[in-house]
Design a protein that fits this description.
about 250 residues; mainly alpha; Herpes Virus-1; three-stranded antiparallel beta sheet; 7 helices; binds zinc ion
């Protein structure tokens, strides 16, 4: 059976047994104390933690051997809503039939795609500089991530402020993504261990129990020269994996 599934079963078991016993004994203090010091109960708990430590150690070792996560070429994306093309000018009528001269005259075609005007590629006149450009082409240009996409493509007049851009978040490659998924699932289980421990032994003991388990695991990662360690991500109130060079 999968390690993580097994841990889930064991934790559920601990919880159920504990509460069943409590109900049967009407929550007697002596029964609570007896259970908490029951070697079987304690070993069941530590085996769950050990399984999770082993799983995280194994996965991080694999991740380390796959090499550093490669950040793909820096791709940018615009922040905020797209520009509405109609705020920059107006449509030019296509009612007059196009002549052969129109089709060959450079001023009568779109300076972006060099195609003549059609009903799906209608001419659009920019208010500020009066240049006429294919409407879909201009809309695509204004909302592109090019550094100068706020300028008229014919005369470089600024039509608006450049939209702010940010790097696109790159997805990790598939093999790494599977491993990261396993590590995150194991972290979630550690969180369950902590909560159960808190319910049984009090908040402070639960927290330090899992923190000790993480510290032990960090020591194993250090000894095994695995290029990761575990740290608390206080912002998201959870454990996170960090890159490290132990030398
Ligand atoms: Zn065009
Ligand atoms: Zn222009």
């Amino acid at each position: 059976m999968d390690v993580l599934v097994q841990v889930t079963h064991r934790l559920n078991n601990i919880r159920t047994t504990y509460y069943l016993n409590l109900i049967e004994t009407s929550y007697s203090t002596t029964e609570i104390q007896r259970m908490l010091h029951d070697p079987l109960f304690i070993s069941e708990f530590s085996e769950c933690i050990l399984s999770l430590q082993n799983e995280i150690f194994l996965q991080l070792t694999c991740l380390d051997q796959l090499g550093p996560l490669t950040i793909r070429d820096l791709e940018l994306e615009n922040i905020g809503p797209d520009h509405n093309i109609d705020n920059f000018g107006h449509d030019v009528s296509l009612l007059s039939p196009l002549t052969a001269a129109d089709l060959t005259n450079p001023s009568e075609c779109c300076c972006i795609c060099l195609s003549p005007w059609t009903f799906t590629h209608p001419p659009f006149r920019i208010t500020i500089c009066a240049h006429t450009i294919g409407k879909p082409c201009l809309a695509r240009w204004l909302n592109s991530t090019a550094h100068n996409s706020n300028l008229c493509p014919c005369c470089r007049t600024a039509l608006c402020e450049r939209r702010a851009r940010r790097p696109k978040a790159a997805d990790p490659p598939p093999a790494q993504a599977v491993i990261i998924g396993r590590v995150e699932a194991a972290f979630k289980q550690l969180g369950l261990c902590q909560r159960l421990h808190e319910e049984l032994f009090g908040a402070e003991k639960g927290e330090s129990y899992v923190r000790n388990a993480i510290e032990e695991l960090n020591y194993r990662l250090f000894e095994g020269d695995v290029g990761f360690y575990l740290a608390t991500d206080w912002v998201r109130a959870r454990w996170g994996v960090r890159r490290v060079n132990w030398h």
